[in-house]
């Protein structure tokens, strides 16, 4: 049983890669449905903004309380801003945003396309001379590719603002000290790495969710299984990709926090 599931999962991964290249080939001749594209952009962006901001705020509160408490005990208050901002810029904001979008949007994309597949609506698109890649896949990929970096940037801004507030209210750390430490430690490469990760995560969410929907079988039960499998696969792929990207982006760089605090 496990062998069959593993084989099916590997086949879906290979078909997802194939879908990626098929979309690249069709980019020159693709027929863009502007209304569908705008709808998908709204769903991924403004439609997910509330939950993204809410998650960012509470995660930043907890993270700031834990970091500030330990660093004050070590008499290293000047490094709190650097640690928090670097952590959110390099890792927490892009990854958390991707996880939220994977759960909310990835599952929605898979369920929508899987339902169309099992009810033979995909076949109807071919009869109407409409390519499913043009009508279904491309708008979702474009929406994730455009909106995930924007959501990640908004999440980062909200997280830093809440961290500054919590550090000042609960631990009496002036915002000037917090920001001074953060600006000394941050560099353009940190923002670029965050942007690159968000773009990669957006592509992963869109392609995996769409392909899992297109390969769904077994009626209503198959739709549920495909949706669950899609989200799990997206999350695992995001975490693995994050490790690989972080390894190549930061293994040769020195300690930004140490440099900022002249350690």
Automatic annotation (TrEMBL):
The chain crosses the membrane at residues 41-64, 71-89, 160-183, 195-214, 226-250. GO terms for molecular function: phospholipid transporter activity. It is a multi-pass membrane protein. The lineage of its organism: Eukaryota, Rhodophyta, Bangiophyceae, Bangiales, Bangiaceae. This is Hypothetical chloroplast RF63. Keywords: Membrane, Plastid, Transmembrane, Transmembrane helix, Transport. It comes from Wildemania schizophylla (Red alga). The gene is ycf63. InterPro entries: ABC_MlaE_roteobac (IPR003453), Permease_MalE (IPR030802). It is found in: Membrane.
């Amino acid at each position: 049983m496990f062998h069959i599931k593993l084989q099916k999962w590997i086949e879906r991964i290979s078909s997802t890669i194939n879908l990626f290249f098929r979309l690249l080939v069709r980019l020159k001749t693709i027929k863009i449905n502007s209304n569908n594209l705008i709808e998908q952009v709204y769903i991924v962006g403004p439609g997910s903004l509330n939950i993204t901001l809410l998650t960012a705020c509470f995660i930043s509160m907890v993270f700031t309380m834990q970091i500030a408490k330990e660093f004050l005990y070590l008499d290293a208050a000047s490094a709190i801003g650097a640690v928090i901002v670097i952590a959110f810029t390099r890792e927490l904001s892009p990854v958390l945003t991707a996880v939220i979008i994977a759960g909310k949007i990835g599952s929605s994309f898979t369920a929508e396309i899987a339902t169309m597949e099992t009810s033979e609506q995909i076949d109807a698109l071919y009869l109407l001379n409409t390519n499913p890649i043009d009508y279904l896949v491309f708008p979702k990929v474009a929406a994730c590719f455009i909106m995930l970096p924007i959501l990640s940037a908004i999440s980062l801004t909200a997280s830093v603002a809440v961290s500054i507030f919590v550090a000042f209210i609960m631990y009496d750390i002036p915002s000037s000290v917090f920001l001074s430490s953060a600006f000394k430690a941050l560099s353009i490469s940190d923002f670029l790495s965050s942007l690159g990760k968000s773009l990669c995560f957006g592509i992963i969410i869109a392609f995996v969710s769409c392909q899992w929907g297109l390969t769904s079988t077994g009626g209503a039960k198959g739709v549920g299984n495909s949706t669950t499998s899609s989200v799990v696969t997206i999350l695992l792929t995001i975490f693995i990709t994050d490790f690989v990207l972080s390894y190549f982006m930061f293994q040769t760089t020195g300690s930004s926090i140490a440099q900022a605090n002249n350690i």
